[in-house]
């Protein structure tokens, strides 16, 4: 038995037993089965090992586990061996059923129900035990789905963001993994090509397959059994690099099926981080950014162009390296053209809009922030720079660009406090606004003149996104149709 299976607790006055969990149930049932097979009563066995019957009853019921001296005495009295008593298998089918029910009733999920456990005895029928076990498994399934409720998702997201802030959004272990991957295929510098990524996949034992029938709820699918990575055939080769790396990250990082929404979010962050760390290798990216800082010309566009990645990836990668390697505290945000905040990170004190629980995603960005004013600029080729004076304190400078996705336009912004703007290109801009949010008079409340004229006369139909009213996706991988994925893998395995 391992230390994970045994939870040492209070030692009784005899000093021979400790309260335990886990396989103590199997051990207890094996002792009882052996005693019953020999026709011994509990009192007879207790006398043989010089213990009180109540102590042996606790051991047989799995509430206590005997220390080694007592276990040896029990084995001798039962004509058995210690190794035989410690086998992992239940002595028979009935005992296995009893053990499963007892474990279920002692688990955290059952305890949260606040109902008393049933007493498992000889009189309890097998059908009753199977029913209790079936009900518990269904409760566990529903409990797992509850982890994907909006409330739980927001809590998990807030906790993860706090961890990222403490770490400066820099994760040394993932940086080392990225270096090892590149070194394994002989990467010699410059933009990381599609061929380099294909070589990494091959090195990990996987081949790449571009298909036209990729499940609609997925970006990629890994077939671990046959060593394949499936991607949509519509991806241009350059854009395929990040999806491939995100898929391979599950292998490199040792991800297992997420047990909670928090696990799912953490794994997604790690996959995105590893993809960025491979496509913008730390050493090269830091060299470029350090020289740009020396010249006071840090630019997301230069970082993007040097490594042939998207602006969003370059901006996000900058946040990974800015604090740890450049000594700069920064913030990053991605906002939809509707004003909805999609992604956000900060360790520079900027106060993003949030709900009462501190969750940022889904909140509305102030119309006067760079992430919103950029949508009003006719020049979409050049970056938009702006200073914003915050009512909450301080002045922040941001650079922002508009990009297009299937969901519409969105802006990607990187910003710093006023005292750090001297390191960035675009600091000389004259564009300046003031934000008084969350005061509604800042940008969300119409003027008295307009309100007086139109209130009561306007009747708009809200373009409510269906996702607003839908439940958060559930399942092991939230939002993924497992049935569709399994059918896809089966079809491609049979058709190979």
Automatic annotation (TrEMBL):
Domain HTH cro/C1-type: 31-85
SMART domains reported for this sequence: HTH_XRE
Keyword DNA-binding: yes
GO-annotated cellular components: cytosol
GO molecular function: DNA binding; DNA-binding transcription factor activity
Keyword annotations of the record: DNA-binding
Family: Belongs to the short-chain fatty acyl-CoA assimilation regulator (ScfR) family.
Name of the molecule in the record: Helix-turn-helix domain-containing protein
Lineage, top ranks: Bacteria, Bacillati, Actinomycetota, Actinomycetes, Micrococcales
């Amino acid at each position: 038995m391992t230390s994970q299976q045994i939870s040492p607790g209070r030692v009784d006055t005899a000093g021979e037993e400790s309260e335990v969990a886990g396989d103590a149930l199997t051990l207890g049932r094996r002792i009882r089965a052996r005693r019953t097979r020999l026709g011994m009563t509990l009192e007879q066995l207790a006398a043989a090992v010089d213990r009180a019957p109540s102590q042996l009853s606790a051991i047989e019921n799995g509430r206590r586990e005997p220390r080694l001296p007592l276990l040896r005495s029990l084995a001798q009295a039962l004509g058995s061996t210690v190794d035989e008593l410690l086998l992992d298998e239940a002595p028979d089918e009935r005992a296995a059923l009893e053990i499963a029910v007892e474990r279920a009733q002692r688990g955290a999920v059952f305890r949260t129900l606040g109902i008393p456990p049933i007493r498992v005895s000889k009189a309890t029928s097998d059908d009753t035990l199977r029913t209790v076990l079936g009900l518990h498994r269904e409760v566990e399934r529903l409990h797992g789905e509850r982890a994907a409720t909006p409330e739980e998702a927001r809590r998990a997201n807030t906790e993860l963001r706090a961890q990222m802030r403490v770490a400066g959004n820099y994760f040394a272990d993932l940086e080392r993994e990225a270096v090892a991957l590149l070194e394994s295929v002989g990467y010699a510098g410059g933009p990381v090509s599609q061929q380099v990524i294909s070589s990494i996949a091959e090195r990990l034992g996987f081949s790449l397959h571009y298909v036209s029938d990729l499940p609609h709820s997925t970006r990629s699918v890994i077939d671990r059994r046959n060593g394949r990575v499936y991607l949509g055939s519509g991806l241009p080769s350059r854009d395929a690099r990040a999806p491939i790396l995100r898929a391979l990250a599950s292998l490199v990082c040792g991800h297992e099926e997420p047990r909670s929404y928090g696990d799912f979010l953490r794994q997604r962050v790690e996959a995105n981080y590893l993809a960025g760390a491979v496509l913008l290798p730390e050493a090269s990216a830091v060299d470029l950014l350090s020289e740009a800082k020396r010249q006071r010309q840090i630019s997301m566009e230069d970082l993007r162009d040097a490594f042939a990645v998207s602006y969003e990836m370059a901006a996000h990668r900058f946040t990974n390296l800015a604090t740890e390697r450049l000594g700069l505290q920064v913030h990053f945000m991605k906002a939809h053209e509707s004003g909805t905040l999609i992604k956000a990170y900060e360790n520079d004190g900027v106060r993003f809009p949030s709900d009462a629980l501190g969750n940022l995603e889904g909140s509305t960005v102030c119309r006067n922030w760079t992430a919103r004013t950029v949508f009003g600029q006719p020049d979409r080729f050049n970056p938009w720079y702006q200073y914003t004076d915050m009512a909450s304190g301080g002045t922040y400078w941001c650079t922002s660009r508009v990009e297009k996705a299937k969901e519409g336009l969105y802006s990607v912004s990187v910003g710093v406090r006023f005292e750090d703007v001297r390191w960035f290109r675009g600091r000389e801009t004259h564009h300046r606004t003031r934000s008084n949010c969350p005061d509604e008079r800042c940008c969300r409340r119409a003027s008295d003149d307009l309100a007086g004229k139109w209130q009561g006369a306007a009747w708009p139909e809200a373009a409510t996104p269906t996702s607003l009213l839908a439940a958060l996706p559930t399942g092991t991988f939230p939002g993924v149709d497992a049935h569709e994925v399994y059918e896809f893998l089966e079809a491609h395995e049979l058709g190979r």
